[in-house]
Amino acid sequence: MTEPESGLFLVVTIKPRKDRLAEAEAQLQSMRRQTLTEPGCVFMHLVQPRDDPDNWVMLEMFRSQAAWDEHMQQPYNTEGNRILEDLLREPSDLRLMDER
């Protein structure tokens, strides 16, 4: 008998362009709303660190690696990430984490 797969946590540091903050936030919130409808998404929050106001962080949890892999293939996600390229100062830093 195999052990059930534990959830997958993600911390994504996002560096929006200062001259396109509203556009970047609107795009991220649109992607977030759609992601929250996926059965594999447990939570997804866009937050702003108090000690780093120029950057944002997306905190995410998916039920499994497979659920996240499926999420990454969704058209609104692939297209949304393409749109974000012009709205960010540099590519986002994605960290995948497992629960201990």
From TrEMBL:
Gene3D superfamilies: 3.30.70.100. One of its GO terms (molecular function) is catalytic activity. SUPFAM superfamilies: Dimeric alpha+beta barrel (SSF54909). Residues 8-97 form the ABM domain. This is ABM domain-containing protein.
